[in-house]
UniProtKB/TrEMBL annotation:
Protein name: MFS transporter
PROSITE patterns recorded: MFS (PS50850)
Domain named Major facilitator superfamily (MFS) profile: residues: 36-443
TM spans (from-to): 39-65, 71-94, 106-124, 130-154, 166-186, 198-217, 264-282, 294-317, 329-347, 388-407, 419-438
Pfam families (UniProt xref): MFS_1
Keywords assigned: Membrane, Transmembrane, Transmembrane helix
Compartments, record wording: Cell membrane
SUPFAM superfamilies in UniProt: MFS general substrate transporter
Organism of origin: Nonomuraea turkmeniaca
Length: 458
């Protein structure tokens, strides 16, 4: 088996060779250069103070803000939730900048602005318009500095272990950092107040995250070389954009080609369906299971089970995707959604059904975080990866934000809970069908590499 000492250049061997043993797969991790591990450290530090992590502080600041300002609790929750919807919508633009300018040129200024905007929450205080504006700016800069950059950095360096990289360095790390930030946030709010809490977080971003990106964040040499070739080809007008291959054996296509492909349409809709269904259950759990007279404490514990299982699911999916030569590897995780929904819908027959179902939903929720970026890189290469993954995140994230609201609104209008579950189960079944319909991965080093993707496109 080839080693990944030259990450981009060894990709074709990986795709064409027989699947390695699990021991060889793990042993090959040691062959990555030091630059890869420095970049991984930069990613971990960035994710440790990302908006996806700091959002856990919202639980502890909502009450004090409402008490100080006289605003209603729902109004405060809405104020802090809106930026989390708006921020990811700009990820396609961030991805385009990363693809064209490079990770560092985007991450460094955005991280600086993110830290300053977070500290500015202290200045905005109880002025509603100012606070809302600063929260939105902080979310946009924060998502751009982290989620807009880190996926391509990991994909570029860890070519033989992308699934594991997405799982452990991005997905699981957010859960673990979030668990650590939660008690810290509670302590800070009780000590320095809610405004002081964000002042501390902003300072930590400037003192810890920003220097880490300056010192450690680098893209893989193959990605840098490919970007240079792409610019030269464009300047000389001697090659089409799609002809610049960053990774042998994988077509390197642009965004317009990717979004017209059957592969991208299928996996984006698939992830949106399962993500929306899982979030609908997670957010509305207390209402959905109240009809079965399940106590709030049991429901809360079931949600915790989902979150813990998501870490396990993300790690398992990452390893499975790396070692599989077929996109059918995602089918078991899509099946977890349907089975999990069927179990929780019958939670009234036994609490164990609730716990088992939520655990399966958690496994699928975690796997979802690895499946999207892995398939984007595997089908389309790295040339426009930032844009493709950014657009995928924006669509899936928007659906995940809206479906719980729509489900809640339907129940408020008197729609039966069984009907709600049936709708979610249909979404899960459609996702399984879509997983089976995913086209085969592009053939290694094929002269028709791009057309292998497009052949399943129109």
């Amino acid at each position: 088996m080839s080693t990944p000492s030259s990450p981009i250049g060894q990709a074709s061997a990986r795709h064409s060779a027989a699947r390695p043993s699990f021991g060889s797969y793990l042993a090959s991790v040691r062959s990555y250069p030091s630059g890869a591990w420095k970049a991984a450290a930069a990613v971990l530090i960035a994710m440790g103070l990302s908006p996806a992590t700091i959002v856990t502080a919202t639980t502890f600041v909502v009450g004090p803000i409402a008490e100080e300002t006289g605003w209603s609790v729902p109004a405060v929750v809405s104020m802090f939730s809106m930026p989390l919807v708006i921020g990811p919508l700009l990820l396609p633009l961030t991805g385009r900048l990363v693809d064209r300018l490079g990770a560092r040129r985007v991450a460094l200024p955005m991280m600086l602005l993110y830290g300053l905007a977070t500290m500015s929450i202290w200045v905005a205080g109880a002025r509603h318009a100012w606070l809302q504006t600063v929260l939105i700016i902080a979310a946009i800069c924060g998502f751009s500095a982290t989620m807009g950059v880190v996926f391509k950095v990991i994909a570029g360096w860890f070519t033989e272990h992308r699934g594991a990289g997405f799982s452990l360095l991005l997905g699981s790390s957010v859960g673990l950092f979030g668990a650590a930030v939660s008690p810290v946030s509670a302590q800070l709010v009780g000590t320095v107040g809610w405004r002081g809490t964000y002042l501390v977080f902003g300072a930590a971003i400037l003192v810890i995250s920003l220097p880490a990106q300056i010192l450690l964040l680098r893209e893989a040499p193959g990605v840098l070389a490919a970007r240079g070739r792409d610019r030269s080809a464009a300047a000389a007008s001697t090659a089409s954009a799609a002809s610049v291959d960053e990774e042998p054996g994988v077509p390197s296509v642009n965004l317009s080609i990717a979004v017209r492909s059957r592969a991208w349409i299928l996996y984006t809709l698939m992830l949106a369906l399962v993500g929306g269904a899982i979030m609908a259950v997670r957010v509305n759990a207390e209402i959905l299971f109240n009809r079965d007279h399940i106590s709030v404490s049991v429901v809360a514990l079931s949600v915790s089970t989902l979150l813990i299982a998501s870490i396990i699911g993300q790690a398992a999916a990452g390893f499975a995707l790396d070692r599989s030569r077929s996109p059918r590897a995602v089918v078991p995780y899509m099946a977890c959604v349907l089975v999990g929904l069927l179990l929780v819908a019958n939670a009234g027959r036994g609490v164990w059904l609730l716990y088992a179902g939520m655990a399966l939903l958690g496994v699928a929720s975690g796997a979802e975080g690895s499946i999207g970026p892995f398939l984007s890189a595997r089908y389309f290469g790295l040339r426009a990866f930032g844009q493709i993954q950014g657009l995928t995140l924006a669509i899936v994230g928007t659906v995940m934000s809206l479906v719980p609201i729509l489900v809640s609104a339907q129940m408020d209008q008197g729609v039966d809970i069984d009907t709600v579950f049936h709708g979610l189960e249909i979404a899960g079944l459609i996702a399984i069908v879509m997983a089976f319909l995913l086209p085969a991965y592009p053939e290694p080093a094929s002269a028709e590499g791009e057309h292998a993707v497009l052949g399943a496109a129109d």
